[in-house]
Design goal:
This is ADP-ribosylation/crystallin J1. The chain is α+β, with helices and mostly antiparallel strands. It has a single domain, classed as ADP-ribosylation fold (Alpha-Beta Barrel). The chain has a 3-stranded antiparallel β-sheet with strand order 1-3-7. The chain has a two-stranded antiparallel sheet with strand order 2-6. A hairpin with a 6-residue loop joins strand 4 and strand 5. It is globular.
Amino acid sequence: MSRKTTTLWRPTGPEELALVEASGWTAWPPRLPEQPIFYPVLDEDYAVRIARDWNVPASGSGHVTRFEVDTEFLERYPVRQVGGETILELWVPAEELDEFNAHIVGRIEVVREFR
């Protein structure tokens, strides 16, 4: 029996993307001290807007990644609406990121790039 997964997206800059690549495309890197929360998003369009409108000016490129996570595991994180109807995020405390990574199913893939 295969487990049910949920598709998540993550807008990311080049430094974080290099760390994901170094993991073999299987894990997100630990948060920095000023990053207490890891926040994947639930809508590709929202991830595109962050990658294009925030990551590109901040670091020269922005990337939209897509990945699958075990749905049952994700139930512990309430969906946060942080703007309009499609501005939805999960807030994963930094100290839970290793456990979150263990519930990623398959590989993290880059689906869009902006420069």
